[in-house]
Amino acid sequence: MRISFIGGGVMAEALISGVLEAKLATSKDIKVGEPTDARRAYLSNKYGVEVHPRNLDVLVDEDIVILSIKPQNLSEVMAEIGSGLNDEHVVLSIVAGARMDTLSNGLTHAAVIRVMPNTPAQIGVGMTVWTASADIPQHKIAASRDILRTLGEEMYVTDEKLIDMATALSASGPAYVFLFIEALIDAGVYLGMPRDMARKLVLQTVEGSARLVQESGRHPAELKDTVSSPGGGTVEALMAFEQGGFRGTVLEAVASAYEKYRTLGEQR
Predict the structure, then answer these.
(1) Which residues bind NADPH (predicted)?
(2) Which of 124, 148, 134 lies closest to 104, judged by CA?
(3) Binding site: residue ranges?
(4) What is the pLDDT of residues 189-243, one digit of tens each?
(5) What CATH number is given for 3-161 in this structure?
(6) For the chain, which residues make up each domain, given as ranges?
(7) pTM, entire model
(8) Binding residues for NADPH
């Protein structure tokens, strides 16, 4: 499998590392277009991949072209590389908010895949939601799925609206979880616990709780009830959460993110 990267940032590096580790490609099969000298040198030295300052120089005879750039640079980059694409190329975009029609029109290229990963993908435990145009050959769909699985779990959807929803839920989701983790650690410190101890307790509690939901198959509410003894401290804390509007705030926050992403997508 031959892969070109347009942009050599953090998510591109996660994909390069994952693809090489999974032996989906060799370093000789990977090319990266990256404008920053230091970043090109880093990727070349660490992974042995071919790097170029010009994006067009990485578009020769590649199977999959991965767009890994900032949203504000999308129009400029699409105008630059569109003429270098041929019928064999499949363009896989991890540009936040870039819709399928924006990509296909901007590139004048029909074979596009829209991908929305999240930051835990950097260590191979991410959640990626994706969709693809209908005319992509099945062997290239399968190859794209293999690439995305190096980031963690993946889910293919046919309705692109679900990508916008996933952007607000799973792509932005780590920020929500980090905020909750930070608040729990601060709560431990507020009680008088050393910060390093609070951090260890909270991180293991969050990780263990998520695994328990996954592996038990039980509803989170049911698991919550198993910790909540009548008249006990846990139910007292849960009451404080409810009185503070915790549940409603979470719903409103995710809905607000979704509306923002929809608006941004319409502007691109």
Answers:
(1) 55
(2) 134
(3) 6-11, 55
(4) 999 999 999 999 999 999 999 999 999 999 999 999 999 999 999 999 999 999 9
(5) 3.40.50.720
(6) 3-161, 173-267
(7) 0.91
(8) 55
